[in-house]
Design brief:
Layout: H1 6-12, H2 16-26, E1 31-36, H3 43-52, H4 66-70, E2 81-88, E3 101-102, H5 111-130, E4 135-138, H6 146-152, E5 157-158, E6 164-165, E7 173-180, H7 200-204, E8 210-211, E9 215-216, H8 222-228, E10 244-246, H9 250-253, H10 273-277, H11 280-284, H12 288-294, H13 304-316
Helix pairs in contact: 2-5
Catalytic activity: epoxyqueuosine(34) in tRNA + AH2 = queuosine(34) in tRNA + A + H2O
EC number: 1.17.99.6
Binding site for [4Fe-4S] cluster 2: 205, 221, 248, 251
Length: 317
Amino acid sequence: MEILTNSEKQNRNLTPAEIIKNRAKELGFLSCGIAKAEFLEKEAPRLENWLKNDFHGKMSYMENHFDKRLDPRLLVENAKSVISLTYNYYPETFQRNDSFKIAKYAYGKDYHFVVKDKLKELLHFIQEEFGDINGRVFVDSAPILEHAWAAKAGLGWVGKNTLTLSKQKGSFFFLAEIILDAEFCYDQPIQTDHCGNCTKCIDSCPTEAILPNRTVDGSKCISYFTIELKESIPNEMKGKFDDWIFGCDVCQDVCPWNRFSISHQEKDFQPHEKLLNYSKSDWQEITEEVFKEIFQKSAVKRTKLEGFSRNIKFVST
């Protein structure tokens, strides 16, 4: 007589794709979808034009691996499936209103580490459950057009601000992928664009970086200036940052679909008390010691104190 655990009994009535999605949910992922690994034909001319228009600014790395960005089979040999996942980062508590602003995704521990650990656990589960499967996990760590894959996997549609939007969950979530050399039942993309005639993200962007044709001029984005740009911020941007000193959430904050955002349950994303309560003068006086204390494991460490202080000075004068 075959003895099955409760989990095995439950899984016996599910498809492999359903088993994967259930495990992803148990690991804390907000949603999970699977798409066929293939060349992104529609994205190729969009990416080419984006680069030709220099919308990547000084992010020269965006010019690299053009083919790999469009074809996951160049990242994993014999790739058949791309599993796309979302992980909620919408906080329960926010910075004080009269402070300099930090993007919500950077409130807690660097998401690269938090989400990647969970992805590795999910990949290990898939390999144990279904046998000899080769795969790689990605969290904003390789040339992957993650919003395109999320859309193909039915997790949402690409909004006018070029972020993945969900009617049920908004857009305050990280995207992650697992590319596998195994076939599964594939999800269908959402066919309807639920942005409609709304242009709130376009109208509210402080630097007019969001263009009408579902394109973001990255070289004008506040996140680009405060995170990616290593040199001095151009003087013509003075007075346009709306007090943002690391990243920017304006296009998400004004999006009507984000009224459905719910607070995350990830303890590693809990912000440092000083991050929430610091005033502008506190940030202006920040020392190396305090910077390391507040942002010890945060994505903000990318700028180092030098870049962070540059941003504060730029929005202060």
